[in-house]
Design a protein that fits this description.
Number of helices of chain A: 4
Largest sheet of chain B: none
Domain RNA polymerase sigma factor 70 region 4 type (chain B): 122-174
Number of domains of chain B: 2
GO molecular function, one term (chain B): DNA binding
Radius of gyration of chain A: 21 Å
Largest interface: A-B, 32 and 39 residues
Oligomer: heterodimer
Domain RNA polymerase sigma-70 region (chain B): 12-77
GO biological process, one term (chain B): DNA-templated transcription initiation
Radius of gyration of chain B: 22 Å
Family (chain B): Belongs to the sigma-70 factor family. ECF subfamily.
CATH topology of the largest domain in chain B: Rna Polymerase Sigma Factor, Chain: A
Order of helices and strands of chain A: HHHH
Strand content of chain B: under 5%
Structural class of chain B: mainly alpha
Strand content of chain A: under 5%
Number of helices of chain B: 8
Shape of chain B: extended
Helix content of chain B: 55-70%
Shape of chain A: elongated
CATH architecture of the largest domain in chain B: Orthogonal Bundle
Number of strands of chain B: 0
Number of strands of chain A: 0
Structural class of chain A: mainly alpha
Distance between the termini of chain A: 64 Å
Number of domains of chain A: 1
Order of helices and strands of chain B: HHHHHHHH
Chain lengths: 84, 184
């Protein structure tokens, strides 16, 4: 157990926080570090902003299965039409 | 000036999500969207020799896609009268209400929000293209599809700490990229 994190470790906890995967103790030590370190405060603020942007953007993705199908279709087409 | 070249093998990985988000807000139908995109890629393959290399691959594909979307509109609007406005008031008591109900509500900002969201969405996807393919793929799985850490680790055969390093790098370059392209 250690209470004082380095900046790199803080960043990792901060990243985990964005996916709600940091433990209570990790969050506590991160907060402690943030009080002392302006750099990490900036990083943490930007990181939260990025998460919020991605949430509001509500990006839709092709499902992996559909992507494979599309790839197969393209590949087949590429074989039948020779490159010019 | 460096001329762009086409890599059709990478189209699906690099542009499918971008084109999907571009189309879905315009067509509003997931199945039609997928069809349009596969048509676009196929048309792109056939028209490869017309690509002069002056635009980026994505811009070129978008220009094909735009035409496909217009065709799609035409097809779905070919039955006459679909775009007509219908006034549903027939008795004299409720006269005048129609106009009021159809006036724009100044406090209703949903349309503007949607436009802004679309721009943000495309900006994020553009920035994702600047990452390397594997990094982008892992980031998308983790962040957008919200797949569990251990599932991703198994699929890519990496340890969780590897994953967090990749996520950290991806987030950092995305932040920088968005700061440049979006916030200003």
């Amino acid at each position: 157990m250690k209470f004082l994190l380095k900046c790199g470790e803080t960043a990792e906890v901060c990243d985990k926080c964005q996916y709600e995967e940091a433990s209570f103790f990790e969050k506590l030590t991160m907060k402690l570090h943030l009080i002392m370190c302006k750099c990490c405060r900036n990083y943490s603020a930007n990181n939260n902003k990025l998460t919020n942007s991605i949430k509001t953007a509500d990006i839709k993705t092709f499902s992996a299965k559909d992507k494979e199908l599309l790839k197969a279709k393209l590949n087949q087409e590429m074989r039948t039409t020779p490159k010019s | 000036m460096i001329l762009e070249t086409l890599n059709p093998e990478k189209w699906v990985d690099n542009y499918a999500d971008y084109l999907y988000n571009y189309t879905i807000v315009r067509v509003n139908d997931p199945i039609a969207t997928q069809d349009l995109i596969s048509e676009t890629f196929l048309a792109g393959l056939k028209a490869q020799k017309n690509f002069k290399g002056e635009a980026t691959e994505r811009t070129w594909l978008i220009s094909i896609l735009k035409r496909k979307i217009i065709d799609h509109y035409r097809k779905s609007n070919s039955t006459k009268g679909k775009a007509e406005i219908k006034i549903s008031y027939h008795n004299p008591d409720s006269e005048g209400d129609w106009l009021e109900e159809n006036a724009a509500d100044p406090f209703d900002k949903t349309a503007e929000d949607q436009i802004e969201n679309e721009e943000l969405r495309l900006a994020i996807l553009e920035c994702l293209e600047t990452l390397d393919t594997r990094q982008a793929e892992i980031f998308k799985m983790k962040t957008i599809d919200e797949i569990d850490t251990d599932v991703i680790c198994k699929e890519f055969n990496i340890t969780p700490s590897n994953l967090w390093v990749i996520i950290h790098r991806a987030r950092k370059s995305l932040m920088e990229c968005l700061e440049k392209n979006w916030l200003n």
